[in-house]
């Protein structure tokens, strides 16, 4: 359970650092002798407390500072003098101003903490924690923002189990901000709903395209990679204008899963009636596939050179997937040290473990999709007759 920092210090009567500052001034005052009294300087206690303490603790620190000042003036016999009164007024004014500042700070911290909790919940929805194993694969995911204060962005990934394998999504929404986050959530929801029930991987992408086109006010596009890995090791990758996954073999070498024909990003492909790029191969036990967004390969060093991911394929071997991603992140940071060439990036490392034993996993059996994408759905099956999207390019393509 999250506890706000102010809630831990609120029960304190006074702030430790402020009290120590007052005692330090008192020691200095005693060393200087009775001829020199630093009464106004005792206000440093409540002023220092306002930086971190709750308003109640600031008031307590100010009261302690005033008490020390009163005791000193009583000792010197100058309690009612102008010099003493001016010192008391200074302590009181600084305490009042510091209390107001502390109250404003704690309110702002509360608002920021609430916003952070919302951001954490949003990020959990977009990039949830994934199990270490899923069907025939071991996997690990990692998300990193170029802004150290940011928790959410337009990069997203997901893995959905199906009866004879898994289906994988890695995507990146154009732009930043709440609009990108909202569209990411829409696409993730569509993938989670359709990946377990559509017989062909291409149809999952078609459903996701429909979900995107139902946002008529949305002018963004999204690049993404859809993949399907069966229990037998058959890997199918559909590419919608996204960076190709990197396949790392047991000997540490890597090769790109480049499609024969490049696809267009989701949101643009429908306008051009364009099929996604496709790639197929067979993996062997121990082979790994790194799905990533362009923030990884576009990280630049001081000479403006991009990160050489293929040359670093060996970093993705000889350790569990999570440790490999940590190692890769550290290498990217070393590559981009001293430059501003780091962008948001999402990583997903999938290791094929070989033919698993029989397991009762929900959803349909995965079948290798057809090489080309003849639209299998009719407008009626897609629900075009009730869809509110006018002049839908997908509907025109289906009709033709």
Q: What can you see in these coordinates?
A:
Helices cover 39% and strands 17% of the residues. It is α+β, with helices and mostly antiparallel strands and 400 residues long. The protein folds into two domains: 5-121, no CATH class; 131-370, PPM-type phosphatase domain (Phosphatase 2c, domain 1), CATH 3.60.40.10. It has a six-stranded antiparallel β-sheet with strand order 1-2-11-10-7-8. A hairpin with a 2-residue loop joins strand 1 (133-134) and strand 2 (137-144). It is elongated.
Q: SSE layout and pairings?
A:
Layout: H1 5-9, H2 16-32, H3 44-49, H4 55-76, H5 82-126, E1 133-134, E2 137-144, E3 155-162, E4 165-173, H6 178-194, H7 201-213, E5 222-230, E6 234-240, E7 246-248, E8 254-256, E9 277-282, E10 288-292, H8 294-297, H9 321-335, E11 345-352, H10 379-382, H11 393-399
List its traits.
six-stranded antiparallel β-sheet; 2 domains; 400 residues; Phosphatase 2c, domain 1; 11 helices
Given the C-alpha coordinates, what overall shape results?
elongated
Name the CATH architecture of the largest domain. Answer: 4-Layer Sandwich
- Number of distinct helices: 11
How many domains comprise the coordinates? 2
In angstroms, what is the radius of gyration? 31 Å
Structural class: alpha+beta
Determine and state the CATH class of the largest domain.
Alpha Beta
Strand order of the largest sheet: 1-2-11-10-7-8
Distance between the terminal alpha carbons, to the nearest Å?
56 Å
CATH topology description of the largest domain: Phosphatase 2c, domain 1
Average pLDDT score: 81
Beta-strand proportion: 15-25%
């Amino acid at each position: 359970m999250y506890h706000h920092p102010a809630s831990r210090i609120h029960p304190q009567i006074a702030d430790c650092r402020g009290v120590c500052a007052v005692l330090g001034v008192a020691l200095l005052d005693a060393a200087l002798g009775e001829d020199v009294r630093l009464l106004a300087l005792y206000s440093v206690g409540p002023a220092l407390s306002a930086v971190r303490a709750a308003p109640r603790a600031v008031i307590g620190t100010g009261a302690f500072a005033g008490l020390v000042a009163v005791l000193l003036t009583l000792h010197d016999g100058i309690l009612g003098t102008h010099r003493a009164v001016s010192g008391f007024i200074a302590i009181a004014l600084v305490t009042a101003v510091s209390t107001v500042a502390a109250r404003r700070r704690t309110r702002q911290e509360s608002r920021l903490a609430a916003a952070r909790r919302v951001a954490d919940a949003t990020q959990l929805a977009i990039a949830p924690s994934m199990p270490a194993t899923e069907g025939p694969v071991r996997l690990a995911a990692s998300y990193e923002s170029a802004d150290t204060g940011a928790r959410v962005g337009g990069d997203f990934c997901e893995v959905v189990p199906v009866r004879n394998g898994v289906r994988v999504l890695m995507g990146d929404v154009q732009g930043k901000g709440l609009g990108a986050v909202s569209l990411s959530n829409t696409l993730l929801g569509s993938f989670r709903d359709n990946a377990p029930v559509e017989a062909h991987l291409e149809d999952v992408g078609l459903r996701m395209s429909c979900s995107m086109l139902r946002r008529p006010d949305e002018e963004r596009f999204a690049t993404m990679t859809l993949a399907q890995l069966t229990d037998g090791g058959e890997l199918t990758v559909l590419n919608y204008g996204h960076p190709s996954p990197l396949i790392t073999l047991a000997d540490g070498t890597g090769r790109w899963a480049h499609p024969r024909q490049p696809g267009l990003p989701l949101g643009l492909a429908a306008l051009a009636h364009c099929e996604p790029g496709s790639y197929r191969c067979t993996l062997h036990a121990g082979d790994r596939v790194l799905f990533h967004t362009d923030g990884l390969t576009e990280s630049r060093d001081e000479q403006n050179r991009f990160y050489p991911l293929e040359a670093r394929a060996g970093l993705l071997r000889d350790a569990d997937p999570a440790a490999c991603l940590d190692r890769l992140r550290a290498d990217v940071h070393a590559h981009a040290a001293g430059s501003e060439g780091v962008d948001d990036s999402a990583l997903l490392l999938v290791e094929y473990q070989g033919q698993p034993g029989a397991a009762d996993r929900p959803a349909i059996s995965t079948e290798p999709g057809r090489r080309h994408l003849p639209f299998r759905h009719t407008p009626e099956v897609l629900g075009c007759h009730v869809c509110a999207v006018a002049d839908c390019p997908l509907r025109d393509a289906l009709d033709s």
